[in-house]
Amino acid sequence: MKIIVCLWFVLGALSAAGKVIFTTVGQRATLECGAVSFKNSLEWRQGDDRIVFVDKKGFPRHGKAAVQTRSKRRGDTDLDIFPVRKEDAGTFTCTADGNPQVHTLLVGSVSVSPPAELKVGSNATLLCEIEGLNPDSVKTVQWIGVDKNVRSRTAQLENVALTDAGTWKCQFSHGGETFSTQLEIKVTEPATKTTPAPKQSSKVNGKKINSTICAQPSCADSGVAHWWMWVAIGAGCLVVVLLMVSVIVLYKRIRRRKRNLHLMKNGRQAQRPRQYCQCNHQTAAAKPQQGRQKGRPSALPLQPLLKE
Question: Which residues are listed as membrane-spanning (predicted)?
Fold first, then answer.
């Protein structure tokens, strides 16, 4: 009888044991309930606070858990959280039809200080924070670099070299499983400072002239290049001026030639005598009068006045 009771407790403990989910800040975390479906009720809790409760009719009732506003059900029983925050780390309990399963959510974040690109010879600090770990698991946090291994959640990099650049991995163990997250480190060489060249004094015609000595090999080449550049610019300007003068002279010559041709043409027309066209043809005969002309009626004879 005792053996049967012990087996029952062992099976109950195994069924209640959930999964360990690891994610980083700002990412998405999906918690699997362990039950594919439910008949009567489903409940998700964050610690002791209810997230959501669904009855057999499928109507959800939301609780007051901090993660409630950033979570929603995925499928029938799973829970989806986005975006994940540090305070979300902890235990989550899914109870389907009275069968609870406890899951653990671990939330990690990695950073480097200073956050910008590291310079060769500078100092930096790598920090790995894992929320939700038990004290025994915290001891397993370590940084693994290209050729370094720091068994601590904080790694101090002194006198940074180019070999420190690359992918650093924060690794830890929890519940017999190993988890890790990565951090990309960039290292750049500091900009070289150019020292001013010393000045050399010389005398020309009794006057003291200070000239700068070029210490770099390319300095003389750059001076020659500048001289040739000014020569090329001057030659180009001269060519442009000559082309403009040639165009102006050619234009004036063409106009003068057109004007002379016009004057010659007008002079020839003035010397040529005018010729009129004479037509040698018979004049048209006078048109005969048709019909008879009516003469004016003669005046009537005056009659003598009657006398009494």
Answer: 227-251
Question: Using only C-alpha atoms, what is the Rg of the chain?
Answer: 57
**Closest alpha carbon to 60 in 16, 71, 88:** 71
Q: Where along the chain do the CATH 2.60.40.10 domains lie? A: 16-106, 114-188
Closest CA to 33 of 49, 54, 48: 54
Amino acid at 216: Q
Q: What topology is assigned to 16-106 in CATH? A: Immunoglobulin-like (2.60.40)
Which stretches does DSSP call E strand in 57-198? 60-62, 71-74, 78-81, 90-96, 99-113, 118-119, 124-131, 142-144, 149-150, 154-157, 166-174, 177-185, 187-188
**pLDDT digit string (tens) for the chain, length 308 residues:** 344 333 333 334 434 568 999 999 999 999 999 999 999 999 999 999 999 999 988 899 999 999 999 999 999 999 999 999 999 999 999 999 999 999 999 999 999 999 888 999 999 999 999 999 999 999 999 999 988 899 999 999 999 999 999 999 999 999 899 999 999 999 998 877 666 555 555 454 555 545 444 545 555 555 667 788 888 898 999 999 999 999 999 999 998 888 888 888 877 766 665 555 555 555 555 555 555 555 555 555 555 554 44
Rounded-to-integer distance, Cα 89 and Cα 260, Å: 103
3-state helix, strand and coil shares in percent for the chain, rounded to the nearest 5: 25, 35, 40
d(CA 276, CA 130): 122
3-state secondary structure of 217: coil
